[in-house]
Design brief:
Blueprint (H helix, E strand, L loop, with lengths): L10 H36 L10 E6 L4 H11 L9 E4 L9 H9 L5 E5 L3 H11 L10 E5 L5 H34 L4 H7 L1 H5 L4 E5 L9 H4 L1 H24 L2 H4 L2 H29 L11 H32 L1 H12 L20 H14 L5 H36 L8 H11 L1
Parallel strand pairs: 1-2, 1-3, 4-5
Antiparallel strand pairs: 3-4
Helix pairs in contact: 1-13, 2-5, 9-11, 9-12, 11-12, 11-15, 12-13, 12-14, 12-15, 14-15
Keywords: Membrane, Transmembrane, Transmembrane helix
Protein name: DUF3533 domain-containing protein
InterPro entries: DUF3533, MNNG_permease-like
């Protein structure tokens, strides 16, 4: 013992060295296999998202019905139809009896991603400003674009806001040129006097306001709705490893308990453990003043805590189930795909991803993120559905843990029966376990 150098030529040590290289090479191969099979999922979710923009829907609602409304409608309907463009469509104003407020409510209710509203009497207000040479005229009151950043801040910042504002800026420039030409050629107004008294009427007859009705105004929320979920999964995994060590390495309960008792222990113990852990995880966000009261008042924090508890259970019990099959040596090769498959559908809208990512609607991360956005930013409320997905994953894990543990116990009993009596120091114990199971 402790007497060899690494390149010692002793036959006995050479065998150990060869075994070491075999394990390292095999491990490297498995890591490479994991890289090539799993990382493309996440890379693919972020690769060329612009080619999926046609799956993002936008509305044009013309309450003006005149010159400005026609210009806006024409500009947006000519900027659609390709895969790299938002799918714009004109929506009848009859759907919105209460005017723009109903349009804003539809955006919050996720009927569309963005809605461009030409406000009522926009053209008439411009014409009156020309007639009265009104220096207080504000062209930004003509058009309002409604969107919610908190629904998906990445999509809002990368696509929705830049594309919408780009089209509206083009409308503003083109309309200003056409309107100035119209005034100068018609002779219906003294352009010189108008330029002196009300320059904004000529320079910017039409502009817009970008109404971010649900702003992502809590930067620390990024640690709650995505990055923190990775930490939550890792914590759940650590809890599974602690339970495994306590059950099999330290106490030996896996060979002392009946099958029924062992299964109940594996189902109940992790969930009980997650309860206080999820509380302290949630308290970190509360300490950094994440506003949990916007949607549900003071109950918001409790709902978030329960969500964290159930998501830890959904994520951790899956690790618990796979630990039975893969063991301590290979469980990391489940953890990595489990993280990747969840993160891949949480960064950009699933609607804007290739069809293979539709599984994301049933992914724990996606649903936790959706619920967190509702609690913190008061976005569309589907918290019941989001909890339901966590319950479904917990149910699946209950079934798989039961099945896998049953198979593992059968395999262990078979191994113990096949061992010679003089080597089977636990044969009496195994027999007792078998009889009690029967």
């Amino acid at each position: 013992m402790f007497s060899y150098s690494f390149f010692d030529k002793s036959p006995s040590f050479a065998k150990s060295r060869a075994l070491y290289f075999k394990v390292v090479a095999g491990g490297a191969f498995l890591i490479i296999l994991t890289i090539m099979s799993m990382l493309p999922i996440y890379w693919g979710a972020l690769w060329k998202p612009s080619v999926q923009l046609h799956k993002i829907h936008g509305w044009i609602v013309d309450f003006d019905g005149d010159m400005i409304g026609q210009a806006v409608t024409q500009a947006f309907t000519s900027a659609t139809g390709q895969n790299t463009q938002i799918s714009w469509r004109v929506v009848d104003t009859a759907r919105f009896p209460n005017g723009p407020s109903d349009v804003a409510s539809s955006v919050v209710d996720e009927k569309c991603w963005v809605a461009v509203v030409v406000n009522a009497n926009a053209t008439r207000n411009l014409q009156q400003a020309v007639s009265s040479q009104d220096g207080s005229y504000n062209g930004t009151h003509a058009i309002t674009a409604y969107a919610e950043e908190a629904r998906n801040e990445n999509a809002y910042r990368a696509f929705i806001s830049p594309i919408t504002q780009g089209i509206l800026q083009q409308v503003s420039i083109r309309f200003a040129l056409q309107f100035a030409h119209q005034l100068s050629s018609s002779g219906s107004a003294n352009v010189t006097a108008l330029a002196s008294a009300a320059p904004s009427v000529l320079v910017q007859p039409v502009s817009f306001t970008m109404a971010n009705i649900r702003p992502f105004d809590v930067p620390v929320a990024q640690a709650v709705d995505l990055v923190g979920l990775i930490y939550l999964l890792i914590l759940s995994f650590i809890a599974s490893m602690i339970n495994f060590a306590a059950r099999e390495t330290v106490s030996g309960l896996d060979r002392l308990l009946t099958l029924r008792s062992l299964i109940l222990l594996r189902l109940i113990s992790p969930i009980v453990m997650y309860f206080p852990v999820s509380l302290f995880y949630s308290l970190v966000s509360l300490a950094f003043q994440v506003p949990f009261t916007r949607a549900f008042g003071h109950a918001g924090f409790f709902i978030y805590w329960m969500l964290s508890w159930m998501s830890m259970s959904a994520l951790g019990l899956a690790c618990e189930a796979m630990l039975t099959i893969l063991g301590q040596r290979f469980i990391a090769f489940f953890l990595f795909p489990w993280i990747i498959s969840n993160v891949s559908v949480s960064s950009l809208p699933i609607e804007a991803l290739p069809g293979i990512f539709r599984y994301g609607y049933a992914a724990p991360f996606y649903n936790v993120s959706r619920a967190v956005r509702t609690i913190v930013f008061n976005t569309k409320n589907e918290v019941g559905l989001n909890f339901g997905v966590q319950f479904a994953w917990i149910g699946v894990s209950f079934v798989t843990i039961t099945l896998f543990q049953y198979l593992a116990r059968r395999r262990l009993e078979k191994q113990l029966r096949n061992m010679p009596d003089e080597q089977n120091v636990e044969s009496g114990e195994a027999s007792e376990v078998k009889q009690r199971n029967v």
